[in-house]
Amino acid sequence: MDESLLEKREGSVDNDNEYTTWVEYWLEGELVHRSAHVQLKKAVGLKVEAASFG
Amino acid sequence: MANTQAMCTSFMKQLMLGEHQLGTATLTSRTSLTAPTTDTLKAALYLATATVNAGTTAYSASNEVSGTGYSAGGETVTIATAPNSTNSSSTAGVAFFTPSASITYTTVTLATAFDAVLIYNSTQSNKAISVHTFGSQTVTAGTFTLTMPSNTTTTALIRLATT
What we know:
Chain A is mostly beta strands. Chain A has strands spanning 6-14, 18-27, 30-40, 44-48. The radius of gyration of chain A is 22 Å and the shape is rod-shaped. The model of chain A has no long low-confidence stretch (mean pLDDT 90). Chain B has one helix at residues 9-16; strands at residues 6-7, 41-47, 75-77, 84-87, 93-97, 103-121, 127-147, 158-162. Chain B is globular, with a radius of gyration of 16 Å.
């Protein structure tokens, strides 16, 4: 494949929940490769409590 | 239909019952009477049209992604680091746990949009642990990588904190 024919597109999303980057390669209008990397930022939490007597 | 980030409610009960062994093994229990055993966690991806949330009790192939290079059930999660805990005062503290490596789905084609991963315990009857959501994605002959948050008291993937 003549790699010079490939069109590279990149993007990212950054918010409170994630930082995501993606890269695409297009050949003559057709998507031939897409990878994504999601970096999770948030925990899922559980509150625990010990009850008091009385 | 939508996926919702949450700790699975059934997991909370199972914690009290000691049904999960996360991270490096410390307990001699259940499957071995002589040596510690660590459970295997897995990470399955779900379509954006699925409904996985706090009410999810176990892994199901229903509405899981499918495509070239993806095996039903997802990838094994690396859990080389044991859960940790720390006190912030005489009455409060946090226990926390994060998988010790990114989860990578290598050379896959997932053409239908997905936006959630279910972490579950494949050793313990595929019991659900937590659901994590992200912006909708597709992958074409590429790699999908999920990098875990930092393993701290405020950002670890799973946190149990006193009120």
